[in-house]
Amino acid sequence: MLNTSSEPKLDSRKFAAEIMLQESEAIRRASKLLDERFDWAVDRMSSCTGNVIVSGVGKSGLIGKKISATLSSTGTPSHFMHPTEAMHGDLGRVGSKDVAFLLSFSGTTEELLSLAAILRQDSIPIISISKSRDSRLARLSDAALCVGDITEACPYNLAPTASTAAMLALGDALALAVSQRRTFSVEDFQKRHPGGMLGKKLMPVSEVLRFEVGKNVALASGGATVAEILADAERIPRRSGAILIVNQQGKLTGIFTDGDLRRLLAAEGAQVMQRTVDRLMTIDPIHLVSTDLVRDAIQLVREHRVDEIPVVDRNGFPVGILDVQDLVSQKLITD
């Protein structure tokens, strides 16, 4: 039977908050230990023309797999190699242009030490993470990064928790520092994340436009009356809920929405139909350039609460309208 008492829940939340604070403190302390060895590691990884081979055992191995994935997705080719499998043939996956990145909090994991010794004999640069620069693993490394002697967040100081959090944070920091050094761009990121939510957010807005000029978007001049622009708009099937206003050169100067019309009719009645739209439109509306990304559109919607966003080319000529419902249907934002 479900326990509906609030006191145990409060105790659990307090305990969880303490755990998270302990882990964040471990990360903070580890950040104070960054030195010239970290700089060397960034230099070596960013200049690596092969792969970064990440290895570790147990929880450190799981952290290593995640760091390897981060490296790969941010411009640094990487793969994970289990040290035991390395001793049974996987050493053949290591090339002379590779860099090794070995993780062991204690720095005494025998399988990893055996792997480090072999890699060192083969002149493979070794970067490591352990709790101390005096650990056995550190002594086998070219750049020994450390997170310090951490007390685990586990009440019994047994389950790897704070230590793994610090190792992951340090590994991520190294991966992103290398990515920055390699001048990894948004375009590069998109190439590696063509699918899923990340891929959608990095698409140009021009690729998700449902309402396009010349197809189902109405354009009007500022000197036209509301009645005139509505009559023209009615000829467009399945049009958007807005009309784009352009100057004599055809460049965007304003937007007039169905919502604007409803509010004006409620306030002024039918006489509004004879007023010119340049007196009623939103002048110089917030807009996107066709090369902007979907993530930019999401930011605009969240910051300005707009339902229709004009999209123009680099010269200011309208190419379409991005409707907020297009983002909702893609599950990029919630309505």
Automatic annotation (TrEMBL):
SMART domains: CBS. The record marks K59, E111, E152, H193 as: Catalytically relevant. GO terms for molecular function: arabinose-5-phosphate isomerase activity; carbohydrate derivative binding; metal ion binding. The keyword Metal-binding applies. It comes from the Bacteria. Residues 41-184 form the SIS domain. It is an enzyme of class 5 (isomerase). Its EC number is 5.3.1.13. Residues 213-272, 281-335 form the CBS domain. SUPFAM superfamilies: SIS domain. Zn(2+) binds at H82. CDD domains: SIS_Kpsf. One of its GO terms (biological process) is carbohydrate metabolic process. Keywords: CBS domain, Isomerase, Metal-binding, Repeat, Zinc. Pfam families: CBS, SIS. Belongs to the SIS family. GutQ/KpsF subfamily. PANTHER family: ARABINOSE 5-PHOSPHATE ISOMERASE KDSD, PTHR42745. This is Arabinose 5-phosphate isomerase KdsD. The lineage of its organism: Bacteria, Pseudomonadati, Planctomycetota, Planctomycetia, Pirellulales. The gene is kdsD_2.
